[in-house]
Write a structure and sequence with these properties.
The chain is mostly beta strands. The protein has one helix and seven strands, in the order E-E-E-E-E-E-E-H. Helix content is about 5%, strand content about 40%.
Length: about 80
């Protein structure tokens, strides 16, 4: 269960993504940026966002990635 009521639990700078997270939205930040998402270069305006399953990301200084911890999607080994 991800992104309940359009609320994300993780936000990180696009320049330093983590493999411990799954990202489902890109936010353009306060100044906007140019970021490559899933192999496609995208120019983000300030304050804009795109809801997309982020598989790969590069660049994007000034952008932010929003998502969830992987165990929310994959299930925690400590539950049950």
């Amino acid at each position: 269960m991800a992104n309940v009521n359009d609320i994300h639990s993780i936000i990180v700078a696009a320049g330093s993504p983590s493999t411990a997270h799954t990202y489902t939205e890109v936010y353009g930040g306060g100044a906007g940026c140019t970021i490559t998402i899933n192999g496609l270069s995208v120019t983000m305006a300030a304050g804009s966002s795109i809801k997309i399953a982020v598989r790969t990301v590069s660049g994007g200084s000034g952008c932010f990635l929003l998502g969830e911890k992987n165990d929310v999607f994959l299930g925690s080994p400590n539950v049950g």
